[in-house]
Specification:
With about 170 residues, the protein is of the alpha+beta class. The protein folds into 2 domains: about 80 residues, Ubiquitin-like (UB roll) (Roll), CATH 3.10.20; about 70 residues, DNA polymerase, domain 1 (Orthogonal Bundle), CATH 1.10.150. About 30% of the residues lie in helices and about 15% in strands. A 5-stranded mixed sheet has the order 2-1-5-3-4, with helices on one face. Strand 1 and strand 2 form a beta hairpin. Helix 2 crosses helix 5. The termini are far apart. About 40% of the residues are buried. The mean pLDDT is about 95. It binds FE2/S2 (inorganic) cluster (FES) (2 copies). One FE2/S2 (inorganic) cluster binds next to loops.
Length: about 170
Amino acid sequence: MATTARLRVTVNGETRESEVESRLLLVHYLRDHLGLTGTHIGCDTSNCGACTVHVDGEAVKSCTLLAVQSDGSEVTTIEGLASDGQLHPLQEAFWKHHGLQCGYCTPGMIMAAADLLERHPNPSEEDVRHGLEGNLCRCTGYHNIVKAVIDAAGGEVEPTSEEVSA
Ligand code: FES
Ligand code: FES
C-alpha cells in the first residue's frame, strides 16, 4: 500500500495543505492536485527544464523533487510570476522579442531566467546561454530567448523589426 504524508506548502502566496502519496513528484502535485498546469512536463529524464519552478527562491526542476520535500517551503510557479495584473518583465520581453514559438518550454524557461537574473542582474550573452543550458527549446534556436532575457535585465539588444520600421 502506498504511504502518504501531510504536506503544507505555500504556492504562489497561498498556503496549501494536503495528504499526498509520499512518492508524488512536485510537478504532479502542482499540476494534478492544484491545477497549476502552466508547469509543463517535457521529458522523463530530468533534462528539458519545462517543469522549472522556484522553491524558496531557487529554480528547481519540479520533476526531480518529491512533493513532500517541498514541505514548509515557498513555491512559485509561472502562474505566480505576474503581479498586480502586470506581466513580469521577462514575460513582456519574451513576447516583445518572439522568445517563443510553440510555448511548451516557455514557463520553465522564464522561471529559470528569473532565477538567473536574481543571481546575475546584468548578464552577458554567455551568462544567459550558460544559465539556461538546463532548459531545452526545440523551436526557437535560443537566439530570441537570450535577447529577451538580456532586454528584461535592461541590457542592450538589437531593436525588434517592429521598432526598426516604426
Ligand atoms: S519534465 Fe522536468 S526536466 Fe523535463
Ligand atoms: S518554443 Fe517550442 S519548445 Fe521552446
